[in-house]
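Help needed: design a sequence for this.
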């Protein structure tokens, strides 16, 4: 299957690049992936590009194609008490708008890659359409066991070695937390979406989603160290959709607390 030309991927090293404070739209080389582990959001917010302020349409259509509206605002990283924090960066956040009237996908599901290399997932954050497949090629000279226990997107690829690749088709929209049953420190995030209106904010936290259809929907703001926030609004209502101020409290640890695929604590290094 050919990579979906509209879905973006954000690698972490990409999100770490310093540039202007202006939000950047999602670019789209193929395949697209979102990631950042080492630094944050590794590869390019969409394969190899940078996410920008305006979301780029993805080959999907709605009954409101002729309507063009926008959502703008600014996100600020805070601590658990709502005070500004320097422990995270606003440009590492992910923002997307999902219309209540879901777009109709015109092309076939895509296939993306999330590699295991250097005991890390690359990209560390990946954005795909519902129904897309993600392959996990092992580029390390050691064994890995990619798995997730995230609800309807749970999967277990079992143990496989260098040069091998296994994959999974993601059928349910939502956030998927990916781990390795052999190496506790390995983790990644896959967002399975039903929208192409996605971006990351600029260095100052400002963002602007453009080309949105009329009608209500859900604006989601997420950072890998924060719970996802959902805001109901209608882009056609300028008073309610412009100049939003959104605090993003960092309440999750850098390494997500988790157990192995059996629901038990990981063994100590050297016990395998």
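Sure. Designed sequence:
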């Amino acid at each position: 299957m050919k990579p979906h030309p509209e879905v973006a991927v954000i690698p972490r090293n990409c999100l770490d690049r310093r540039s202007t404070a202006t939000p950047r739209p999602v670019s789209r080389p193929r395949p697209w992936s979102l990631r950042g582990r080492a630094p944050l959001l590794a590869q390019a917010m969409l394969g190899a590009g940078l996410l920008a302020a305006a979301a780029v349409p993805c080959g999907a259509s709605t009954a409101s194609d002729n309507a063009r509206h926008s959502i703008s605002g600014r996100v600020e990283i805070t601590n658990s008490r709502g005070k500004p924090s320097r422990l995270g960066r606003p440009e590492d956040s992910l923002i997307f708008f999902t219309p209540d009237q879901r777009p109709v996908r015109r092309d076939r599901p895509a296939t993306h890659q999330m590699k295991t290399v250097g005991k890390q997932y690359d990209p560390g954050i990946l954005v795909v359409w519902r129904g897309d497949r993600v392959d996990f090629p092992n580029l390390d000279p050691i064994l890995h066991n990619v798995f997730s226990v995230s609800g309807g997107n749970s999967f277990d690829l079992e143990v496989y070695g260098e040069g091998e690749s296994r994959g999974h088709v993601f059928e349910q929209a939502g956030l998927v937390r990916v781990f390795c049953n052999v190496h506790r420190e390995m983790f990644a995030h896959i967002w399975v979406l039903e929208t192409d209106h996605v971006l990351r904010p600029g260095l100052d936290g400002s963002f602007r989603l453009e080309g949105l259809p009329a009608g209500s929907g859900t604006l989601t703001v997420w950072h890998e160290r924060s719970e996802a926030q959902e805001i109901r609004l209608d882009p056609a209502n300028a008073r309610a959709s412009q100049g939003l101020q959104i605090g993003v409290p960092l309440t999750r640890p850098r390494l997500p607390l988790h157990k192995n695929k059996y629901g038990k604590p990981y063994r100590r290094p050297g016990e395998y």
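Residues 1-66 have pLDDT under 50 and may be disordered.
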